[in-house]
Amino acid sequence: MIEVENLCKIYGSTPALQDVSFSVEAGEILGFLGPNGAGKTTTLRILSGYLPATSGTAKIAGYDVHEQSIAVRQRIGYLPENPPLYPEMSVESFLYFVARIKRVVAGDRRPNVEAALKKCGLWERRKSLIRKLSKGYRQRVGIAQALVHDPPVIVLDEPTVGLDPRQIIEVRNLIKSLAGDHTIVLSTHILPEVSMTCNRVTIINRGQVVATGTPETLMEELTAGSGYELELDSTIDPEKLTRLEQISGVRSLQYLPESLEDRRQIQIFCEPNSEPGPEIVAACVSCGFNLYEMRRTRASLEDVFLELTTQQVTPTAEDMIEVEETQPEVPEPLDEKLDPVDNNQQDIDEPD
């Protein structure tokens, strides 16, 4: 459904994107992760047709973003970090307006708007002015405007930014409910949200893709954080601990600094796809160690993210020209030359 190959974007002499490539299958939710200035928003703007690439190709539903921009825009719904809403319009009127500028056929506007309202939980608030809505409901309106023309692809840039925990859960459940019928690219900084929502993850850093895969695969293969924590008697012979390192599947071990006065805590790091727990217990018994506690530790997506994105600190193009998610999106007036509308039909667009 989405294919990106060798995408590059250069501002002056500074590259913002360098040979970015990834793909998203139909019905998937892709988590698009990266630190500020990594190139996330630049990539999403290129996919949505908002920004041209310097080189490379991007296709949405088989249509080239550069060569067939109008066809791509008809098949994509885009929610920027700051939704471009008109605060003095009601929710329903705004969605009818968006349906018109997205060239939804007049006969389809009412069912499309009603479907978007119901999917996003806005039916009871459809007559409310947007300026009177909470942050969470405004985000819902932003997602509804991305859905109103029923696109096969939805691109969401930080859809939960600024929301409280309850609102985050509501928006997360909404996004999950859209999967299957739509292909979704989700850019976010909330890593646990990605683990609970996304089928696959692409991590970008300094304008380059550094990892792609399922959250589970990345957590298993790209970190050394999986293993066991042991709490032993502080009187153990350090030389005997080397026997634990000789166990098949054990990569290394280290002492933890927060050990209790009469206890010694040890972190054991394991190889991917290995479970040497029974062998570790047997070795502790044979060495005469007093084992007070043993617990499994697993790497998190946050560990993966930090491992892949904390190696460089030089400014990027997006840092320098401030094109990352810091600038609000401001809606522009409708250009009637680009979107001819039969004014005689306007009266039937709005509900009584």
From TrEMBL:
Gene Ontology molecular-function annotations: ATP binding; ATP hydrolysis activity
Signal peptide per UniProt: none
Keyword NAD: no
Annotated region described as Disordered, given as residue ranges: 321-352
CDD domains per UniProt: ABC_DR_subfamily_A (cd03230)
Keywords of this entry: ATP-binding, Nucleotide-binding, Transport
ABC transporter domain boundaries: 2-231
Domain of life of the source: Bacteria
Record family assignment: Belongs to the ABC transporter superfamily.
UniProt protein name: ABC transporter family protein
